Amino acid sequence: MKRSITFLIPLIMALLTIAMWGLLNRPIDEPPWPSRIQGFSFAPMRAYNDPTKNNYPTIAEIDADLALLEGKAHAVRTYEVKSTLIEIPRLARAHNLNVTLGAWIGSDDKANRAELERLMTVLRAGHRNVVRVMVGNETLLRRDASAKTLMGYLDRIREVTHVPVSTAEPWHVWLKYPELANHVDFITIHLLPYWEGLPVDKAVEYALSRYNEIKTAFPDKQVIIGEVGWPSNGRSYRAAEASQANQTRFLRRFLTEAEKNGLIYYVMEAFDQPWKAQVEGAIGTYWGIYNAEREQKFTFTQPIVRIPHWQELAALSVGIGVILLLLVYRDSSTLSSSGKGFLALMTYAISTAAVWIIYDYTRQYMTPATAVVGVLLLVGGFGVIVLLVAEAHEWAEALWLRQWRRPFPRRDVQDNELPFVSVHVPAYNEPPDLLIETLDALAALDYPQFEVLVIDNNTKDPAVWEPVQAYCAQLGEKFRFFHVAPLAGFKAGALNFALRHTAPQAEVVAVIDADYIVHQRWLRDLVPAFADPEVGIVQAPQDYRDGDQNAFKAMCLSEYRGFFHIGMITRNERNAIIQHGTMTMIRRETLAAVDGWGEWCITEDAELGLRLFERGYKALYIPQTYGRGLIPDSFADFKKQRFRWAYGAVRILAHHRHEFLGLKKTQLTAGQRYHFVAGWLPWFADGFNLLFNFAALGWSVAMVMAPTTITPPYMTVALVPLVLFVFKMAKSFFLYRRRVIATLRQSIAAGLAGLALSHTISMAMFAGMWSGKLPFFRTPKLAAAPAFIRAIADAREEVIFLLAFWLAAFSVLQREDGFMLDVRVWAAVLLVQSVPYFAALLMSLISAWTRLPAGLIGTMPEMQTPEMMTSAK
């Protein structure tokens, strides 16, 4: 039954995925395309042409384009008579195409006069297929010339030709300049409902109503439609969605009405124009019926499907989903059906989203810049997939385990069976009263055979370490004190020193930090786990006793609890815990076998645990409080602690890269490799998120500086950070509520404290990748300054980023297109990216406000070993 469910769930999810693709791509019947339309707007530029740089197509290329349109239209409309475009009338005649000949009118009067001279040269040639002349295209709309100047150009051309002359403007410009009608032989209007934000279902009716409005306003003039169309790709403009399906729907509907009413029109346009991206933005590129490779974009007669080949994309989504699911299902025997269903849902959703985003991105015309961005997005997308799958896997294992694989053993053992334990307490410049309190707790241990070694490491002031030395002597021979100066290797050096002075009969070494007060049953409850000869480490969680001191420490305590009550428990299932350097016990012979603590590493505890795993030893984690220390007093200290942890993680991965990659033979299991990489993956994600933040701010500056050419990133790409943020927050909230047993306030406080460390972690990631030497972490010397100033100083980098993101979001919304959905989504992305920096500022302010009571958050009780939830199915 269990095996059938394992196969049934992915099958159901696969069918749902295919059904979703099918639902979004249901065929829609629309009127067929006429066998021959009135005309096409015709600009024969290829993907590599750019008229702004005088790079025009060859005569042969123009002729090939006209040949493609032969028989499909009565006429073509051109826009300028420069370079090889001057040959269009002659070439079009050979393909039975009439020509509405256009001359480009811009802001340069000299260039305009030259263009008109070329136009008159063509007209003098007497091409009988030139049926109309257009002097200017949206010249008044762009304000390139005044109405008076344009009317002068029109009058000049009308004097030299019998061919009807006009200029082309959007419908509303003719109403604004009615006097223009006195200088033309007919009126040419542009009807582009997309630019007026109309939904496609209302666009045709709207266009025809505007046409009739112009006819009513100018009853004595013939009205033709110089441009009518819809873009196949690009930004949504208010309610107007640019898509291939909508382009097909609009044009097939409009052409049916136009043929029925005998309208003269030119479809905007024959071919896509990649060069327009630099002057009109990306949306100007996609108005063609044919793409830049001269391939027909859509069917003229068959039902319309949003993505014509959606079946292939659906199959690819399922295929990727199956691969991801096979990876996460490899070791899921203890998951309930709900957990397996959740993983199947997530993997198929992730694969479908990835396929959709890649498909959507590759539909744009690639330039060197977009290609580079595409490669970066592909690499980043792979990282996002790995991160989401890893996070989803932890989510499932934390909530839907049917049973523990490795229960948390505790058993009573007779005193004569308990091994001798050497407890090591490294200390540096610790207040004597604090350390004496720690020693009192150790003296009260309910354990028959142990010693305590206090190693004072390089403390300069005798007034600090001498009282502790005297107190150790007072406690008796079990307590030995060593003041060593100089002593290299930091904490690892002190622990190795202690190891060399450990009693010969000691079988287990236990380590606690100098601020920890241990429970009297710590050794008695946990040491018996070493009865298993394969166990090298027994670990209890770090916990803290001053979380009730103020709101800041209560928030920190809530944040710490997630790792020790979720992450470590999940890791324990695959013998892959992160050893931490307090509340830990190590079998002495295994410690000696791996040459002790690594003095090269700033996080010597986690590195030692990894080396023991590489030798094949086991580690056990008992998630119950057996000792509690002190939380950092300020946000600056909180950041320093997390910086050290994250920096050490990077150095460990770099140092052990051959072992992780299997290039060096070890006894690491696949589960251990997975958890060490996946467990630190969110920290690496913070590091790469910093790169994204710089890119996002740079892009926003470009959007403000060049609003006509730089548009927001693709909507599907911009939504990824929002989705990641929501997923991360939802995961933290649900796991805290279910596994940490936290209140709503504590869950929010934990999330806020975790976000506040994002920038610190990102800096640690890059520091660890670039240097093997821990950089100096400067703490502002502002003890006498007001609390508010100290708080700002402690979060100064975060405040700079916060203000930069807020300014960027405000600035992009001030663009003329600030009302558009993609601009607003991008502004939302910027605001979301600012949340961790705001959290840092808020945490710093709370830490400075030491009188803010812990009761606002609520203090957490001591950790207890979790029981398997009986409701798991």
From TrEMBL:
Protein EC: 2.4.1.336
Annotated membrane topology: Multi-pass membrane protein
TM region positions: 7-24, 310-329, 341-359, 365-390, 714-736, 748-767, 825-849
Source superkingdom: Bacteria
Subcellular location: Membrane
GO MF assignments: hexosyltransferase activity; hydrolase activity, hydrolyzing O-glycosyl compounds
GO cellular component, one term: plasma membrane
Coiled-coil residue spans: none
Pfam families: Glyco_tranf_2_3 (PF13641)
Gene Ontology biological-process annotations: carbohydrate metabolic process
Catalytic class of the enzyme: transferase
Protein keywords: Glycosyltransferase, Hydrolase, Magnesium, Membrane, Transferase, Transmembrane, Transmembrane helix
Keyword match Transmembrane: yes
Catalytic activity: a 1,2-diacyl-sn-glycerol + UDP-alpha-D-glucose = a 1,2-diacyl-3-O-(beta-D-glucopyranosyl)-sn-glycerol + UDP + H(+)
Protein known as: Beta-monoglucosyldiacylglycerol synthase
Upper lineage: Bacteria, Pseudomonadati, Pseudomonadota, Gammaproteobacteria, Chromatiales
